[in-house]
Amino acid sequence: MDFTLRPEQEAYLAELRSFGEKELAPHYRADDLAGTLRPDLIPTMARMGLTGLRVPERFGGQEADAVTTGLAAEEIARHDFNACYVLLDSALVSDILLAGATEEQRARWMPSIASGATVPAVCLTEPGQGSDAANLALRADPDDDGDGWRLIGEKTSISLGMYTPVGVVFARTGGPGARGVSAFFADLTDDRLSRTPLDDLGSRSIGRASLYFDGVRVGRADMIGAEGEGFVAVMRGFDYSRAVIGLMCLGIASAALDDAMAYAREREAFGRPIGTFQGVAFPLVEFATQIRAARLLCYEALALKDAGEDPAVPANMAKWWAPKLAADAVHQALLTFGHAGWSTDNTIGQRLRDVIGLEIGDGTAQIAKLVVARHLLGRSTAP
């Protein structure tokens, strides 16, 4: 197995590192305090190609492979974890469109994703259906003219929900269960949609929101794939994006660990740097080891995606492990700083608040483990 990055990937990472240091890191804490993404963030990321990573070149995108997308997510998350949601949603929706949309639909929707004009939301979770997404309740009722539907119901916990003008909305067009769910590329600027911001512990700038649909119209040309195929489409997309999420979490954990190691070299106690004490050094070494191992698991999943093979097992392993590992690593970094880490002047506390959110979002640890169990044990002998 070749673990060497291609020269163009190395060059791209160096470019992203410089970009992150200059354009992202200085705003990370300020955006959290303001509780909003600054207006120039998305255009700035779009100019770096970060909104169009998975968009084909013919639609103005980078047509990057899955591994390169993951590398970019990890590097961006090191500097501004919350800015990475722009990359994540753009990539996930792009993959959903590539898997299920017609060429005409892709030509309609993907150029604006690549340019950053629209960063689409993924509208799946509902107040009563989070992990049980196959039983979602939001309805798509047939329109009077028979050429479309009216969306009725509520979505919640929608990342970028307060900002985005469009979203992939999953709605019930048929009977119960997964086969009754269809996907629509919907206009979220419709007057019949209202938004309520959620007051969150972390990732305060990403505009997580509840969306209320009171008859928002979608036409037949807005349906992605065939009727009743929406849930299947999003599950395929999640199998890939969960590895990207893993790398987002490892990026922020690596940044916190780097800061803790620098502090351990400089801070003195009992006449010597605290890094010379095993009680300080060994926990940092343990987390550095585990982060490296988890990173390779994420790369394996993305390499399988690029090879046209099923990434479900390593991607879901990465989804339950990497966020938990990252939260634990950032926590240890905070403890390494001691009282200095407890102050809000230090970004370690914000990193901890932010990364915990992805222990919940886009599939809990229990759901990821369930997917893996069914692959390893078989459906008839798994939970």
Total number of strands: 10
Compressed to H and E, one letter per element, the order equals HHHHHHEEEEEEEEHEEHHHHH
Oligomer: single chain
Q: Whole-number average pLDDT?
A: 95
- Within CATH, the superfamily of the largest domain carries the name Butyryl-CoA Dehydrogenase, subunit A, domain 3
Question: Structural class, from helix and strand content?
Answer: alpha+beta
For the biggest sheet, the summary is: 4 strands, mixed
List segments where confidence is low: pLDDT < 50 over at least 5 consecutive residues. none
Q: Kindly provide the name of the CATH class of the largest domain.
A: Mainly Alpha
- Overall geometry comes to globular
Any guess at the CATH architecture of the largest domain? Up-down Bundle
Radius of gyration: 21 Å
Number of domains: 3
Structure description:
This protein is α+β, with helices and mostly antiparallel strands and 383 residues long. The protein folds into three domains: 7-115, Acyl-CoA dehydrogenase/oxidase, N-terminal domain (Butyryl-Coa Dehydrogenase, subunit A, domain 1, Orthogonal Bundle), CATH 1.10.540.10; 121-228, Beta Barrel (Butyryl-CoA Dehydrogenase, subunit A, domain 2), CATH 2.40.110; 231-381, Up-down Bundle (Butyryl-CoA Dehydrogenase, subunit A, domain 3). Helix content is 51%, strand content 14%. The strands form three sheets. The chain has a four-stranded mixed beta sheet with strand order 1-4-5-8. Strands 2-3-7-6 form a four-stranded antiparallel beta sheet, with no helix packed on it. Strands 9-10 form a two-stranded antiparallel ribbon. Strand 2 and strand 3 form a beta hairpin. The longest helix has 37 residues, at 230-266. The radius of gyration is 21 Å and the shape is globular. The mean pLDDT is 95. Residues 121-216 form the Acyl-CoA oxidase/dehydrogenase middle domain. Its cofactor is FAD. Keywords: FAD, Flavoprotein, Oxidoreductase.
